[in-house]
Write a structure and sequence with these properties.
About 55% of the residues lie in helices and about 5% in strands. The radius of gyration is 17 Å and the shape is elongated. It has four helices and two strands, in the order H-H-E-E-H-H. The protein is mainly alpha-helical. It has a two-stranded antiparallel sheet.
Length: about 120
């Protein structure tokens, strides 16, 4: 490990990494919204593919924010994106999927407050 203090360049890179991971996750959220709009009563495999990408992107966001916080030496630093604490935004991003019976049935567990698409929601 290094004893050198982080530079402004390090901080800028860490912030860019967070922004890059957020933008990728947001693109998957938009892609998911577009795919689920086409679902009638039958589940589409594209939904599972996008949910898998979204799960990975969500983890990348959390990890990049954690690295950014570490660099700032502030474990409680808030990363604000479009005026919102992004980590507080994430849990509700998939709540709307509860309206799609085909998705709920295929998943087998609720996606409300479940940004990682796992059987155990945050609450």
């Amino acid at each position: 490990f290094s004893l050198e203090k982080p530079t402004d360049e390090d901080a800028a890179k860490a912030e860019r990494d967070v922004l890059r991971s957020i933008l990728l996750r947001e693109s998957y959220l938009e892609r998911l919204r577009n795919v689920v709009r086409t679902i009638a009563k039958k589940f589409k495999p594209e939904v599972a593919d996008v949910l898998d990408l979204l799960r990975s992107a969500s983890l990348d966001v959390v990890e990049s924010i954690e690295a950014w916080r570490k660099l700032k030496d502030d474990a409680n630093a808030t990363f604000v994106w479009n005026g919102i604490n992004y980590l507080l935004k994430m849990p509700s991003d998939l709540d709307y999927l509860s309206e799609y019976v085909a998705v709920q049935k295929w998943m087998g567990f609720p996606l409300t407050r479940n940004p990682f698409c796992i059987p155990y929601a945050m609450d």
